[in-house]
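Q: Can I see a sequence and its folded structure?
A: Here is a first one.
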Amino acid sequence: MSNCRKEDMLLYAVTDRSWLGDKTLAMQVEEALKGGATFVQLREKHLDKEAFQKEAVEIQKLCRKYHVPFVINDNVEIAMEIGADGVHVGQSDMEAGSVREKLGPDKIIGVSAATVEQALQAEKRGADYLGVGAVFSTSTKEDAKPLDHKVLKEICEAVNIPVVAIGGISQDNVLELKGSGISGIAVVSAIFAQKNIKEAANRLKQSVAQIVKE
């Protein structure tokens, strides 16, 4: 039984400090939550542990206020210390089985996958959902070649856990993912680089709801 509900995966917001301007990350995340983000992943590559932990606690509070699952990218240790809802790990970070041993049975574990084989392996080892991509070319991962949407569909059909499409998704191309079988989309700049974060989240959510329903 997966620890995350399919409907929680609809609009999965991944944080990025690149577009903070005069706002704090927490302010931006709250805007996204007000706009309808259904899941939040805190991704920090360059903060020291103390600052990361402080920020994680702050954003976790917000997610609880809006009743939205909160996971941390890669950092299993901080996720455990603050009691986050779970973690998201890449293929090379730590395999799902050993993360599950550390976090226990009730936490959400998300794993990145780009092939049917990786997807099945992650599911077998206890992943609750998969992040699959990059489905379009993306500026956040320069070296990521876009994944054929046929493969995305094959992955969705091969596993019984929710699949979230990630990578280069925007308001302009999101409808191209129709018919793939995804439970939702994970976005960074499509929310956080927008002038009006709340409105951007709201529009994206409506578009994805349309795709997922079909």
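Q: Show me another, different protein.
A: A second, unrelated one:
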Amino acid sequence: MTKTFPEHFLWGGATAANQFEGGWKEGGKGPSVSDVAKFTDPKEMKDLLDVHGLCDITDEQIKEALETNDEVFYPKRHGIDFYHHYKEDIALLAGMGFKVYRMSIAWSRIFPKGDEEVPNEEGLAFYDRVFDECLKYNMQPLVTMSHYEPPLYLATEYNGWYNRKTIDFFVRYVDVITKRYKDKVKYWLTFNEIDSIIRHPFMTGGLIESRFKKEQFEEVEYQAMHHQFVASALAVKITHENIPDAKVGCMLTKLTYYPYSCRPEDVLKERETMRQIYCYSDTQVYGEYPRYLLNMYKNKGFYIKMSEEDLRIMKDYPVDFISFSYYSSSCVAENEAGLTMTSGNTQTAIKNPYIPSSDWGWQIDPIGLRISLIDLYDRYRKPLFIVENGLGARDQIEEDGSINDDYRIDYLKKHMIQMYHAIKDDGVELMGYTTWAPIDLVSNSTNQMSKRYGFIYVDVDDYNRGSYKRIKKKSYDWYKKVIETNGESLFE
């Protein structure tokens, strides 16, 4: 029997405006929280373990950032300059046969400060051109409404998502973009990795931690999270009203944990930790807070302001599908003393001795992706979409100009085979798969270019030196064949 994926499976790749778009002051765009994120150059594992510290920022650091136009130590300001290369880049992606391309709209390109009543026409027109270019190649855009790029003004003047007014600003933005692009975009995501506000509150929620009392900040994070839940539900409502056939999903950081041992204490710790991951998708899928999250609020003495109208909105407008990122797995234990820690996607955890790691400490676990798919589908019985999965590595250009990234091919192939088994053997309904990222871009937490993910190499280094020339890697033609054969080539 021929092994292929479902007939209409959506193969593609994923990017985010804040990591590759550039043009941070062009076309009327205002600064976002990402435009003040500074480059870090980790030398060893201990430099990667403070995820919160890597992503947090103070008013003084924001002031310092805004006093300079520097793009070397603020690399998200230049990214890979997609703003000026979008036609070339979309053609390269289409050359692999992409069915779908996940990207985000920079909120501050549409509403430069975030609180304006009238949108920026230049910003709207830019995305018109981008979507037209995608559709020219029959490549469906999958658009994230907010991907780590709230307008900076909302953070400095309104305290970001802690302020309930931000719901209204977001709703206005969603109404504008869904009306404008109603004939061009039918797949939408509300917030990228909505759960990550707990791990990096400034980047996700525009929360400046130093403004709040330390002992109260966790409650502040969950209050901001509640406002995002309400905003996400309203975004589903508005999108369905403006685009009746649209599909709107949530997006979860799929952190997959194993108990470090079979000690009951470690198993219980794993269950508790996974609940801390699933509580965000539970809320968006079922339209109500899970009992265990409300118990946590009560036990910690949190008072999260939520009205009956908030809860009704959340219940009436759940998401249509669940999308998620998956890169690696790790372990948890009731007692971490003496255990080796390692980094992962916006988190740190105990290293699994049975699993290899990338150069950045992310553990490579293809079977963990299958386990994640089974868990999510059994839990929700709604379509799933893997919208981020990939390997960050240091790629080398050979003397003949080739880039032989066999390690990336090996990583992706093993994960795709596990996806196939989840669909064919486990009955998982999987809509599609977009790799992170099909073209090199600025890696998120460390703001490095040298941690590369793409099938396409971009000639720019950590210090913004290079020609910005695009070069196909070995993995480019490999992924092209995977898509052409709808996965059959994976089993050759």
